[in-house]
């Protein structure tokens, strides 16, 4: 019990450290949010000005925007560690490796959630989506999909950021793994935006939850090998 | 003392690993290397000779003889990647890593072949090069997962790091295969698109079996050769490192 409490303290310390570093520079967050806004505009240009077409594509566009701009955030979470041997020092501290992973995961989750806080209403405005009646269900899809995305993103960035070509490698590793999340999250979101008359969202939400549980456990386990390597 | 012994054995293992022969004795490999293409050609000759053209598809159906076993071989190699990745993380044996790498390379080739043949078959049969069928789509995703796996290996220089990371990616990728398949299947049923075609008639089973055996031989030969090449690359890398160290120390 005591050791679990100590690990939780470490999780919070790592998360806090990453968030403070981000808050003090802010450059990354601003750039990522600007990128998300740009992508929403670009998808709009590509799909044409027809309001109906935009509304139908909104759910898919939202998730693609989250993926493509969120992926820019993950490498940063290790880039800071690579300077001046910070990672080696972090690993020298007592405690379990998974505490570092969970700390970084929490920081990245906060980062992506904050980005979504801006992206979500922007999508609603640009794509003419009315405020959904089942907004709480939409939010839970957003949370579940983001957890699946960030849990693997945080793990794979630990490798990609230390490889020879991190910009290309991270999306190449991460996106094929994200196929179930993309399908389930955009399926559920699309269904919920039209108030889910067919009752499709339940199955997608369960799939997202299963994905999250499986890959949270797998990524937490795999991180010890990845970070020491 | 007993606690130290296994540790020492473990440290000396990589060297013995590399000195040890291949996945099989060299003579067997030579024999198989010649047997595999012969078997492959024989299987094609047999299937064109022995089985009548399909009522609906004609000789197009012969593509299935290679397409379906190629898909089996692809899945077999990715299963091998999974097993060897687990074995590497568990036992830290270098040969498990090299075998996983060889299997991933050959598996990617077979997956590419499966997709290509399926596409060539699908154009005259379904009228499209591509359909968002569950099996087709998840095979394509699997292909990309292992392209990522190979890219990671190519972009990581340190051998231990490369082995550990790719093992983790291999295990997570394999874990995702059933989830991808399920999600694509649900996605399709919810969207009400065309259903998948019926599979091959039982009378054509022999064509499939012969090709499966021939392609299995090809698979083994490819993996064994790639394994040997990777082993030699590893030895060469190590010798270069040693030489660089010696030069720097002024010896």
List the helices and strands of chain B in order: HHHHHHH
Helix content of chain B: over 70%
Q: What is the end-to-end distance of chain A?
A: 29 Å
Which regions of chain B contain 5 or more consecutive residues with pLDDT less than 50?
A: 1-19, 192-198
Morphology of chain B: globular
Number of strands of chain B: 0
Portion in strands of chain B: under 5%
What structural class do the secondary elements of chain A suggest?
Answer: mainly alpha
Number of helices of chain B: 7
Biggest β-sheet description of chain B: none
> How would a crystallographer describe the biggest sheet of chain A?
none
Protein described:
The complex is a heterodimer of chains A (229) and B (251). Chain A is an all-alpha fold and 229 residues long. Chain A has one domain (2-228). Chain A has helices spanning 2-25, 27-47, 51-74, 76-82, 86-92, 97-126, 135-160, 166-177, 179-193, 201-228. In chain A, helix 3 (51-74) packs across helix 8 (166-177). Chain B has 251 residues and is mainly alpha-helical. Chain B has a domain at 59-194 and 210-233. Chain B is built from seven helices and no strands. Chain B has helices at 4-19, 26-50, 62-91, 94-126, 134-154, 159-191, 205-248. In chain B, helix 3 (62-91) packs parallel to helix 7. The radius of gyration of chain B is 22 Å and the shape is globular. The two termini of chain B are 35 Å apart. Residues 1-19 and 192-198 of chain B have low confidence and may be disordered.
